User: Fold this.
Amino acid sequence: MSVPVNDDAVAEKKPSVELNKDSNGFDVVILKDRRGFSAQVHLYGGQVTSWKNERGEELLFMSSKALFKPPKAIRGGIPICFPQFSNLGLIEQHGFARNSFWSIDPDPSPPLATSDDQAVVDLILKLGDEDKTKLDKTKTDKAKAWNFSFEFRLRVTLGPHGELGLTARVRNVDTKPFTFMVALHTYFSVSDISEVRVEGLETLDYLDNLQNRERFTEQGDALTFESEVDRIYLNAPTKIAIIDHELKRTFVLKKDGFSDAVVWNPWERKAKAMVDLADDEYKHMLCVEPAVIEKPITLKPGEEWKGRHKISTVYSSYHSGQLDPMKVLESLGSFG
Ligand code: TA6
Assistant:
């Protein structure tokens, strides 16, 4: 049963926010903007699990074999990797935020600026002493390895032109400093990975996860895909473009507060080994993830970090080579 939160807005076709339940009975928030774009956010994982354009086309990849309940993270949308990226530390791969239950934040403080043009939902995940008992035993053990009190606030916005925005804020509410990594592990839906190129990462240094995280320098032109790619690009720029030639669609990513960007496609062999990904689905996904990995963040008690990630789509009738994505990026101005 869906309970419109601001039902009068729905009648006037203004942006709307609705609280619903998924097939497991877990809470899911549905955002709609006035252009007809929609987004879906699962409180399990605090995870955006859908972003559709006005034609109802899904723009994020979701595995047909995704599991939407603990302990597995949902394979698709935008999983949140926190407080750790990969299996670099003492706790589980990519940390515990993506397989914990978040709540709707009744009082985002300090409130972020909102507008009538956007559908907005504020989520929070916090691990204070009183919350630790809520974690199941294994989680508690793992959380012990990263045993700090924090508040992770996530604001998800949709609109006014269909763009999807995530603002992440991590606050130290402990009595001692802590250090963390974070990534918004974004799965983009693409027509065919061999038809895709990524602009904006040229000439950057990257750590190659397929070669023991050795450091390399990217070549001078667009990134294309012919095999498994798993790289952490360092000091990545504010804007990155993912060009899908087949669909004549460009995803434009704008970020700030995230120093790095991860690019990942598992390709055929790894895809076959993943229980929650169909064998050929690697062809229809690409992860480009704003992240803080190489230089983790340390917060003193009371300090807060903020990172923003905004994604939009640009359609064009261009044929290969006719659209200069850097001109597209420049035309979109600065973060805003
Ligand atoms: O973002 C790239 C990556 O770190 C890859 O190494 C791969 O492990 C991917 O994340 C997915 O990780 P997951 O734990 O969700 O299977």
Notes: The CA atoms of residues 36 and 216 lie 43 Å apart.
